[in-house]
Every structure is written in structure tokens, then in C-alpha cells.
Amino acid sequence: MPETRQGSFAGYSDMRPLDPSAFQPTIELPDADYWLEDVDLGYELLNVAPEQAERVIHAAGRSTLTLEEGVAVLLAHPGILRSANCYQMLASSAGDRRVPSLWVTREGRPRLGWCWRGTPHTWLGAASCAARTPIT
Fold it and tell me: How far apart are CA 113 and CA 30, in angstroms?
């Protein structure tokens, strides 16, 4: 997270009492390096509980993102976070009801934290992609 940027601010992680490494993918990922195709940060899923957002994403034939993928999107597109549209990465879990989430603090810093799976937030969407395409 310290390598992520939002304007002049470096990002940070605050996932107490867990470490980000506690969140593991809950989906099968390609064995080789891959591109995320058609990433959507989930603006239309603001204020929708993660469980419901996941159903909407899967019904549309899309896939939720993992924590690593969500951070990679932020690294590739500095400044992508907006105070009214940050995102959750529903394809990672620590084995409980926590969902890894990226948002902008009041100071403007990107923050990796977590929120409860059953709780909707007016400023958190659910990130998804259309496909994971192996790099050849």
C-alpha cells in the first residue's frame, strides 16, 4: 500500500486485528500472469450489501476481484479512488465476515481496510471484471 498514490498521498493498510495476508482468494485464479478485462469499481452497487452485490455481479457474468487485484488496479491507476465511490474486493476472505476494502480517508490517503460482509456503505461499491486473460 505505501506504493499506491492518491494525489501526493501514499496509501496505507489498517486492517487490525488482521494482516492483509490473512485475506486469501475465494475463487480459482489463472496459474500464469493475467490481465483483468473491463474492470468496474461498482458505482451501481453503492449502498448494496456485499452478499447482494456478489449475486448481481455473478448474474451479469462477471467476477469479483481479489484483494491483490484491487490493489493492483489502484497501483495501475493512481487517483482512481473517489470519496463517493471506493470499492470492496469480494473475492478474498479471511475465513470470517470481513471484506477487504479500499477507500480514501478524510485526509485524502488511500486506505486498505475491511468492512463487515452484511453491511452496505453509501461510498463502497464492489469491484469486478469481465474476464481474467492470461498473458502469452
Answer: 26
What is the rounded distance in angstroms from the CA atom of residue 115 to the CA atom of residue 130? 24
3-state SS, residue 83: coil
pTM passes above 0.85: yes
Which residues fall within 8 angstroms of residue 69, CB to CB, at 6 or more apart? 36, 89, 91, 127, 129
Q: Which domain holds residue 116?
A: 5-16+31-134
| Structural domains of the chain, count | 1
Q: Which three cell numbers stand for residue 28?
A: 480459482
Q: What cell was used for 131?
A: 474476464
Question: What's the longest Cα–Cα distance across the chain?
Answer: 41
Q: Is residue 53 part of a domain?
A: yes
> What is the per-residue pLDDT across 82-117, written as a single tens digit (0 to 9) for each?
877 899 999 999 999 999 999 999 888 999 999 999
Joined grid coordinates for residue 3? 506504493
Q: Which residues of 3-20 are buried (b: 16+ CB within 10 A; e: fewer)?
A: ebebeeeebebebeeeeb
